């Protein structure tokens, strides 16, 4: 009987240097909105997200879910784990970007 052991270089898939807090800030910056505006768009309490980001405390599942629904071009796997997008997510995000271009013209 043969066994095959495959070692995966997790650095390829995960970006451990950034935390979910950094990725949430990235979303706000990339969308051109402040954290307080992001809080309003997500329907969370005033200063709740900014306090979470400042203290680097845990981000609630409702915030993650709201981010995924409000900004579908950012994958949950990227938001939570810093994982690169899967081919399926890349295709979906490409379609969304093309639809945004079409909508804006």
Average of pLDDT: 81
User: Based on CA inertia axes, which overall geometry fits?
Assistant: globular
Say what the CATH topology is: 434 Repressor (Amino-terminal Domain)
Instruction: Identify the CATH class.
Output: Mainly Alpha
How far apart, in Å, are the first and last alpha carbons? 61 Å
Largest sheet: none
Q: From the 3D coordinates, which CATH architecture would you assign?
A: Orthogonal Bundle
β content, as a range?
under 5%
Q: CATH-wise, what's the superfamily? A: lambda repressor-like DNA-binding domains
Q: From N to C, what is the helix and strand string?
A: HHHHHHH
- Count of folded domains: 1
Regions with little confidence, pLDDT below 50 for 5+ residues:
3-17
Task: Determine the number of helices (DSSP H or I, runs of at least 4 residues).
Answer: 7
Number of strands: 0
Helical fraction equals 55-70%
Using the CA coordinates, give the radius of gyration: 17 Å
- The secondary structure category is mainly alpha
Detailed description of the structure:
This protein has 105 residues and is an all-alpha fold. It has a single domain (17-104), classed as 434 Repressor (Amino-terminal Domain). Helix content is 63%, strand content 0%. It has helices at 10-13, 20-31, 35-42, 48-55, 61-70, 76-81, 87-104. The longest helix has 18 residues, at 87-104. The radius of gyration is 17 Å and the shape is globular. Residues 3-17 have low confidence and may be disordered.
């Amino acid at each position: 009987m043969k066994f095959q052991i495959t070692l995966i270089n997790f650095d390829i898939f995960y970006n451990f240097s950034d935390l979910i807090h950094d990725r949430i800030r990235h979303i706000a910056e990339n969308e051109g909105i402040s954290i307080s505006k992001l809080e309003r768009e997500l329907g969370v309490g005033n200063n709740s997200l900014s306090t979470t980001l400042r203290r680097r405390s845990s981000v609630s599942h409702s915030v993650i879910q709201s981010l995924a629904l409000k900004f579908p071009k950012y994958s949950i796997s990227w938001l939570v784990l810093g994982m690169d997008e899967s081919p399926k997510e890349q295709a979906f995000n490409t379609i969304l970007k093309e639809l945004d271009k079409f909508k804006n013209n």
